[in-house]
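Sample intake sheet
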Amino acid sequence: MTLALDEQIAKLIVWFLYFVGLYFSLFWLSVLLFDPQQKGNSEPTRRKVWPEVTIILPMYNEEKTAEGTLRSVFAADYPKEKLHVIAVPNNCSDGTVKLLRRLQKSLDFEMIILKEGGKHLAMNAGLKRTQSPFFACLDADSFIDKHAIKRLIEEFDSPRIAAVLPIMKVHNPNSVLLRVQWLEYILNFFYKYLMGKLDCIHVTPGPLSMFRTKIVKSLGGFRKAHMTEDLELALRLQDNHYILKQSLEAFVYTKAPNTTKNFISQRTRWYHGTIMNVKDYKHVLFNTDYGDFGMFQMPLVATTGFLLLLGVVTALYLFVKQMYFTFKRWYLTHFDFLTYFSQLHWNKTFLDFDWQVIFTTFVLFGLLFIAIYLAFSSAKERIGVLRNTKYFLMFLYYFIIYKFIMAYVWLKVLYRIVFKKSNQWGKVN
């Protein structure tokens, strides 16, 4: 049967997206399996002498979480005389400053109060007071594992390493939406670990990232960067040919949006800022001077969202078209469902199935589950959870509903870009 022109175009799009998905899936798995620099012992080198480290905590109305964040820092397994903490509440209208003053009676940290908002301003204020060779940015709604600081510092085994990232996990994922983000974070940071092998990391996460102070100061500190300063700083470090690494030993637990509205607000800011920063660093795109980062990673970052949007729109079009003709057929038969169902019969043979679609579906889902298994193993998550029926809704949400939500987010991003809307903070970072 000859396909209509629109169906031929849709099929071409589907196969193109399949090829892209298959190519990158196999590519990243090959990076893991055939990395020539992979060592037999994955344990990091344990230092005997620990350098001074400053933890900077930018805060905006963090009255509910700031105490837990600070106490997680002071509970860290790191020499207390080498650990400096600077809390920077900026433009707070709740009881954050009052809480910090109370906590200063029992915890030894410095506080800088800013009257104007902006995370980049808070980080620069803390960075100006920093004298230690290393510093970390820690969001005030995140909680570090007690070994995280040591594990991050151990990764600075070259003077060219400017930043080290931890594995970021969702704190207390007790709903379907939070579990979906928990799964997404684990997959993303395994992906960043693979990117790090090719020096292709493009973002230093706000909940916790460790930096070499001298390098960041020499580059002028943090910028507003379309409200995505953590991504812009990573691009600037790559632009100056520094190295960013992903640790598999350090963990941070962060609060994630627990409503769909806040989730969409957060992701719209993230991805709008991503596109605007890619535009600012467009000279890196397909530039061989930046190696794999310029030829491979930056083009991928620039196009991933639009490929997702293209795939979802194509699937929706085919679904709506099929439903239209089905409804039309029912209408012409005056909704005589009894006769319709009585005439249904199974007459398919083995050759009638579309084995191309079945095969490609199994291949893609197989590769995805391999990635999930490896990511859980690397993040030291219990593999048994993947066999837990309680998490069935999480996977159903992630594979189906989540893609449509993300397509809506990218539609909002596209609208903002076309109509030149400025990026802005929502209620959730």
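Comment: The first strand starts at residue 53 and ends at 59. The chain is about 50% helix and 10% strand.
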